[in-house]
């Protein structure tokens, strides 16, 4: 288990308690979103009929939230870089590994849903134009996914774990992550459970790696493959064109319905298995003596 990021976060000038952390987190998120919206508004209006460009602007706008979190942590809390999970060492390698793992997780879920008869593959779309757009979207999803990880795991989880303990950090940061999605379309019980499980999984991955890079890549790939490889809604939001068109069949608890893969019990099962393995590896496995 790598907890150096928590030890470094404890060196901050202060770490907010579990009442104020969600408040400040929401303030940083909403404030940065408003700044990003008004900054990009002329471009959004100019390209409002172009779904691809609109989606790109919406995803790239998450960079404003990343900047807000970094400024708060570094300038207000006086936190070291490692304290928010940002390091130079192995950053690219871990991020690319995260992309691979996130893609594998999503493909596994889709394959199981297909085997269970919850979806069928309708058509395949490919063109040089869409391939170019997809490459841009991989960068856009990378910014979006890493931003959410920086906010909820890099900053909030490390802050609460440094002030209290790991269970408090995991619980509050995971509930906060889930709460950020309460306004999404097609939200229901299974998506809420799925979001919470993903948040717990992300905390455990950060304890495994000690940085946000791997889980940031995993989060980005999960969203990108869900929305622009397999044409599922991403947490209830349509993501535009995709390589593979799918049609959902059967009950929503199995197919995911309007929330996408995250609305399926298959996703709950896959994430639960990974959480069990990480829990064993981090907390229960007997370590060999040095």
UniProtKB/TrEMBL annotation:
InterPro entries: Rce1/LyrA-like_dom. The chain crosses the membrane at residues 12-32, 52-73, 94-115, 121-143, 164-183, 195-215, 264-284. One of its GO terms (biological process) is CAAX-box protein maturation. Residues 133-225 form the CAAX prenyl protease 2/Lysostaphin resistance protein A-like domain. The keyword Transmembrane applies. GO terms for molecular function: endopeptidase activity. Keywords: Membrane, Transmembrane, Transmembrane helix. Belongs to the UPF0177 family. This is Type II CAAX endopeptidase family protein. It comes from Streptococcus suivaginalis.
